[in-house]
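for the writeup, i need someone to sanity check this before i put it in the appendix. the sequnce is what the collaborator sent (i think, or maybe the updated version? ugh). structure was predicted straight from it, no edits. if anything looks off just tell me and ill rerun, i have time this weekend
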Amino acid sequence: MNKHTPGPWSIRPIGGYPIIQSETGTLVAKTDCSINSVNFVADIDVSRANARLIASAPELLEALEALLADAVEIQALRQSIHQRNGTPFTPSAKIEQA
């Protein structure tokens, strides 16, 4: 399903700027510059912050997938309760009433 490089990913400084790589050493991303409207701006603090965010992507994806699974399970439970009580399960109708 997912076609990205498997995590975990780690940050490694190369020439002062961080790169993100997999456990097997596969290069995932380089964060050596950001672009403004005029030219390339090498900002080490921005590069490090970007590297931390990028390196956390596999864990963030895992957390989102777990939340989605929980949400699907909760929705199924709510629907089951409504069916048992004989009331329609219409969350969008409730939102529209608000």
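The mean pLDDT is 81. Residues 33 and 42 are 5 Å apart (CA to CA).
thx in advance!!
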